[in-house]
Amino acid sequence: MNHEAVDSTLSAMKENARLNHVPIMEDEGMAQLLQLLEQQKPVRILEIGSAIGYSAMRMAIGLPEAVIDTVERDEKRYEDAVQFIRQAGMEDRIRIFHADALEFDTESLSGSYDAIFIDAAKGQYERFFEKYEKLIDSGGTIYCDNMHLNGSIEIPIEQVPKRNRTMVRNLRKFRANMLEHPAYHTVLHDTGDGLMVCTKK
I need a labelling partner for 82 at 20 to 30 A (CA). Which of 15, 27, 182, 201 fits? Predict the structure, then answer.
């Protein structure tokens, strides 16, 4: 790994995210995710929601043995991610697909995964889970970011802007369902914007 190329690429990604209002994971939440992944030691990771490839890059750096497949539907963000992955020399570790994850043909993916990271449309988390959890083996883990949704999950629904209420209701329902899911052991971490960790029994 060319550390100089990787470091300069990460800096460029952060600047791109700032200038273009691309949501990338907060430093605190990213550190928590990487710590949990380092404990789990997954070899194959699937990410739903690449954005510009920042989280995939951080996972690839933190887990030198891992390969990552990641899916992004926004064309501009996908193109930026491809460019950043190439710039960092990570093409052999990160494979990115330009597709809507809810419509994506999972046959394009090869086999099962040790970990799945969901960080895409917040109101669709349950649908993402239902579509992709079959790709996780027993003992594998699904990580879900933004489970506090900047505090919107904890406040009365009447205080949530009307345009966000369906998303908030959907995320609340998904969170509650996972905490009671008989096939998963689920822990909710308050770090960053809330990271939910669901391990398949």
Answer: 27
Q: What is the pTM of this model?
A: 0.94
Q: pLDDT digit string (tens) for 167-194?
A: 999 999 999 999 999 999 999 999 889 9
Say if residues 166 and 140 touch (Cβ distance below 8 Å): no
Distance between CA 75 and CA 159 in Å, rounded?
Answer: 34
What is the spatial distance between Cα 130 and Cα 116, in angstroms, rounded to a whole number?
12
CA dihedral 102, 177, 164, 72 (to 10 degrees): -30
> If we measure between CA atoms, which residue out of 79, 133, 135, 73 comes closest to residue 103?
73
The candidate with the shortest Cα–Cα distance to 125, out of 68, 88, 169, is 169
More confident residue, 5 or 45: 45
